[in-house]
Design brief:
This protein is an alpha/beta fold. Helices cover 39% and strands 18% of the residues. The chain has a 4-stranded mixed beta sheet. Strands 1-4 form a two-stranded antiparallel ribbon. It has a two-stranded antiparallel sheet with strand order 2-3. A hairpin with a 5-residue loop joins strand 2 and strand 3. Helix 1 runs antiparallel to helix 3 and helix 3 crosses helix 4. The longest helix is centred in the middle third of the chain and has 19 residues. The relative contact order is 0.15.
Length: 152
Amino acid sequence: MQDSFERTSAGLYRSGAFLIMQQHPFQFVRKDVHPFYINCAMLERAPAHLNDVVADMTELLSVESLSHAISLNVQISGGESRDWIFSRPVALNLKIPHLSIRKDVKTYGVATNFIAGDIQPGDYIIHIADLLTAGTSATQWIDVIEGSGATI
């Protein structure tokens, strides 16, 4: 696990995604103030480092989160749209379904609601969220998932 932490940390640093500003801390949408910020757009522009981070997330989830949930219907979810950078590849790597949670109800196409995917009461959902850049939509997405009868 230590190797994964070091690889992820190095990827965030080398891609320019990890920013530190002690003198002028970052203010997040929720009004929290922190001296660090992870810019996912920078990580997205560095595919090798993004792949390393996704591989480490996959390893972490496959070992810790899924070991006790084998008999449950487990799915990965991510919210629109930065979460999908991480949640979709992790779901593909784990070979489990992905739920795309939208900010607004979709009014066209097949799935005309907040969730694109098949979610059932009793499903076990692992939600991957990019909380450092915004964090305001995560509460809404949790409400949507739990409102469907699934466990997050």
